[in-house]
Task: structure prediction
Amino acid sequence: MTATAPREEQLWSRCAGCASLLYRKRLRRNLDVCPECGEHARLGAPERLRQLVDPGSLRLLPDRLPEADPLDFVDVLPYPHRLTAARASTGLAEGVVCATATIGGHPAALAVMDFRFLGGSLGCAVGELITRAAERALDDRTPLVLITASGGARMQEGALSLMQMATVSQAIAALREAGLLTVSVLTDPTYGGVAASFATNTDLVLAESGARMGFAGPRVIRQITGRALPEGFQTADFLLRHGQVDMVVQRRSLRGRLMALLAATRAGGPARSPVPRQEPASRRERLADDGAALARPADPAAEGDADTPEAGDTPAVRDAWDTVRMARHPGRPTTLDYLDSVFDGFVELHGDRLGADCPAIVGGVARLAGRHVMVIGHQKGHTTAELVARNFGMASPAGHRKALRLMRLAARLGLPVVTLVDTPGADPGVSAEEQGQAAAIAENILTLTVLPTPVLAVITGEGGSGGALALAVADRVLMLENAVYSVISPEGCAAILWPDRSAAPQAARALRLTAPDLRRLGVVDEVVSEPSSAAHDDPAETAHRLRATLLANLLPLLDVPPAMLVRLRRQRFRRFGANRVGARAGLR
Ligand SMILES: [Zn+2]
Result:
């Protein structure tokens, strides 16, 4: 108690649900749940941890990472200013707090996101910290508990934040392989890249009462569909009804539920694990060895091969916004065009085996220079009628599940997978949300991190956020010179960070979404140059160059044992963490 009288708003707070004026201390005693109407107020990460873990058991994991502004991103404010303000207002170093603790005596590693910190957005540091928490769980052989609260990937870190969806997913895959339980607790709100990765690809998904979760946010869906959304859309009860969560839990029961779940797995004991435990030091050493084992053609010194034309030779640098328009050009070759020109003998396979066949994704077996491969790609079209029939290349959950089925089939048959990415993004419709769009994308990302067969991805046109990544967690990521690959569309970014959408050209430049930029950031391994004008002016020459580059990248992968392929692929995505970003990626 201080001598001065506390201001009224510190003593009282108004419930967002029923507008009751509540005594602050009483509200806190009730875990910030309104005693009148049951509204669950949002919690910061420190308070959440206090409510969940055994007193005295909390050990915070280090949260300091090198400063990272990999894109030198500026909207109306420079990104470092936004970070400084978020730190000052929350007292946190980043948007997640990670710790080890016991819950009812059961040890666990925890990562708790804090929505107050830049909307709980997933950037390189957040991804790195959650990955380290997962690795700590693996080293300690404990379960991992994730408490999510996020608007999605962090725009200011561009495609590097998109990569964090893969980085954290592969850490979760490692826990799956080790037989260790992963649990996510969805709290309000959980959207975008977080929903479409680690919030939904854990073993168990709990939703706190009042939580909303989805791939696309309600505002975006309303804008695109032009329709009012159904009552209770994307709420915890909606998610339960549509089979997307294991249970809905009131805040006062959450600790008890977690205790029961952790106890159940503990009874089984970690000894059931199919994968022998590796000492942390040796695991890291082995990764370092693997890095040297396969000469990476991505190293600048290893490039300049005459068979693999490089964009580096192109004299004029096109403006990012012009490239966006080029990537969306209706004349640009589509996946079916490339299946005809680059590959031979394509046999299309249909269906997700669960009730649908999505026209926005095509896939099947084909031959590349006589070798059988599985090709999976987004399909747009050249005319309006074709575009509408293909839903503009925006895949539904059924499309992602068809792709998943074909990836797994390829691995069983020993076929390499080649993906062709060209989508503005995953389908943001109402039924896509009902059918679990976030989880469908999340499962593809996770599966690609464990797929024991070579995977080559090519960004051929638009690489739109999570929908693109669902086909692009690969051993080698290639990109056509005039394609773009981004965490969010320039228009979407402009609408959020600038006064209005007309700032899309500025947003396009800030996002670093062009092939040369992404090559410098290491998101892309090789750029496939297009004929002097662009792909749509000379599709035959584009196909010729793509075919040569695909072969040059595929052949070395065929000799790599599957287990090493998977290790190298994970290493590829692990390096997008804040450690690497702290060293700067050498952008101009
Ligand atoms: Zn209330």
